[in-house]
Amino acid sequence: MKVYNTLEKKLEKFKTIEENKVRMYVCGPTVYNYFHIGNARTFLMFDVIRQYLVQRGYDVNYVQNFTDIDDKLIVKANEMGVTVKELAEDMIVNYFEDARSLRIKDAITHPKATENIEQIIDIIQGLIKKGLAYQGGEDVFFDTQKFYGYGKLSGQNLEKLESGSRIEVDRNKKNPLDFVLWKAAKPSEPKWDSPWGEGRPGWHIECSAMSRRYLGESIDIHGGGEDLAFPHHENEIAQSEGLSDKPFSKYWLHIGFLQIENKKMGKSEGNSLMVRDLRKKFTPLALRFFLMSAHYRSPINFSDELLESAERSVERINTCYTNLQHAIKSSAMVSQNQIETKNETETVKRVDSLIEKYYTVMDNDFNTADGLSILFELVREVNTYLKEGSNINTLNHMQTAFETLNFCFDLIQEKDSKNLEEEIESLIEERQLARKERDFQKADAIRNQLLDKGIILEDTPSGVRWKFVE
C-alpha cells in the first residue's frame, strides 16, 4: 500500500509505527455552525480511508476532535444570546445528525478542546521550559525561530511564510510567524485558570494536546483539509515535535478543495452549501457518492447536474444489488441444474479479477474514483449474467464480490426485503385474479403500480416472475 505524504511531497510505502495498528488523528469541525459540503468531503473521505484500512486488516484508533472554544463560537453565541457551551453542544448534536446521514461513522474518540485544558496547559509549560515559548503581554506565544525546520510541511522558508495568509498581527509577538498558545481572558468570554492568568487556549495547541492524550507522542496519520496545511498543521508539528523531540506524524494527508460551479466556496463568494440544506434536495447516498467520485487529493466541482448524475449512479448500483439478491433467493428455492459450465467458470474469473483490481487501485493512495469505476464494472457483469445465468454458486460469488467492493463505499440502500416482497407478491396475486376475471384494466393498473416502484413483471409458462428495473 502507498500513500501520498504531504510532508515528503511524494508517494511512500505505508508502514505503521506498530505492526497492523494505525493511530489516526483528523481535525474536526469548529462547532459554531452546521458543516458545509467542503467540510463533509474531509470528514467522509477520512472515514472511507479509515474503513479501507480496516478492510485491509489494520486495527485503527481513529480520533476526530471538536473545537468548542474559538473566536467564531464566541461571536456566534453572542449574536444568538446563548452561552458558548450551549451553542457548541447544540452544534455537536447537529454534526452527528448530518454526518451519520452521510454514513460517516463515529470516530473511536471525539474529544473536545474544553475537556483538555489541563493537557494544553501542561504542553505550554513544557514548551516554555524548553525555551520554545514565551509570554508576550498577557498572552503566551510559540517562538517559531527557535524550532528548527518550521515550514517543512508547507515547503516554504520563513521569509516566504511571513507574507503568507492567516498570520495573526500582534505587537506582543517577537516575530510575525509566532502564534498564540494561550490567550488572556477578555470580558464576558469563557476562561480557565492558568499559570499566566485567566484565559483560553489558542486554536493550534488543542489538536497537539488531544492527539498526544489519546494517541501518544507519535502517530501514523494526521489529516485534514488542504487549507489546514498552513498554518494549523505546520504549527502542530512545531508544538508537538518541539516538546517531544520525536516525529509527530509519520504521514500527512490532505483533502483537495471543493468548488461550487467552478468557483471557490466561501463566505466571500456567498456560496457555502450546508449539508443540512443539501439533504433536503438530494439523497444522502447521492451526496456520499459524489464526494467519493474524485481522488481525495484532487479538487472537485459541485453542481446540481453532477448530483443528479450521482442519484442515478446510486440507483443503478442498488437496482443491480437488489436484482442479485432476488436471483439468489429464487435460485435457492427452485430445483435446477447447478453444474458449473465453462461460462460460469469464466464469469467467476472475471469477478475475481475485479476484486484484485479494486485492491490494486485502493492500495494506490486510496483511489476511490477508480474504485467506484470497478464497482460499476461489477454491476455490468452482474446485470449481464442475470439475463441468462442462475447458478447459485456463481450468484453467491457475485454477492461476496459486491460486498467486498462496497465495504468502504457503503452505497447499498438497506430495504425491508421481507415486507417489500410480501407487498409485491400480494399485488401479483391481485393482478392474476383480475386477469382471471378478465378485468384487464385493473390488471394493467396493478402492473403500472409495480412499475412505479421500479418492478417489472414477466409472464412465463411457469408463472409470473418479477425483478427490479435495471
UniProtKB/TrEMBL annotation:
Zn(2+) binds at residues 27, 207, 232, 236. It comes from the Bacteria. Residues 417-444 form a coiled coil. Keywords: Aminoacyl-tRNA synthetase, ATP-binding, Coiled coil, Cytoplasm, Ligase, Metal-binding, Nucleotide-binding, Protein biosynthesis, Zinc. Residues 357-420 form the Cysteinyl-tRNA synthetase class Ia DALR domain. A motif ('HIGH' region) lies at residues 29-39. It is found in: Cytoplasm. It holds the Pfam family CysS_C. A motif ('KMSKS' region) lies at residues 264-268. Its EC number is 6.1.1.16. Binds 1 zinc ion per subunit. The keyword ATP-binding applies. Its cofactor is Zn(2+). It is an enzyme of class 6 (ligase). One of its GO terms (cellular component) is cytosol. Its main location: cytoplasm. Belongs to the class-I aminoacyl-tRNA synthetase family. PANTHER family: CYSTEINE--TRNA LIGASE, CYTOPLASMIC, CYSTEINYL-TRNA SYNTHETASE. Monomer. This is Cysteine--tRNA ligase. It comes from Alkalicella caledoniensis. The gene is cysS.
